[in-house]
Amino acid sequence: APEEIRIIREHFFKVDKTIGRRVIPFDYQTGEWDHIVYFPFDPVRGETIPSFGEWMKALAAQEGGMDKAQKLFDRYWELTDTSRAEIARLPAAWVP
Fold this sequence. Notes:
The protein is mostly helical. It has helices at 3-19, 52-63, 66-79, and strands at 24-27, 35-38.
């Protein structure tokens, strides 16, 4: 796997688990994107996406300090050509 995918799998997903953020990853075989991650949330149940600050604090604890966490995060962005964040919702008729 490319280095950026390795960073996601070996480092970032551990942080997501630590802070309780649900993650649904996909490695695409066709199309515009190599890797997409969905972070589901349900405002009705009060589930929200933790803040970036909370996430970075957990990354720093995991990696042995904020300097190491920032270095890893910066390396990830050096390797990433394109990134985009969007918000979507599941239509009410599809919610179990």
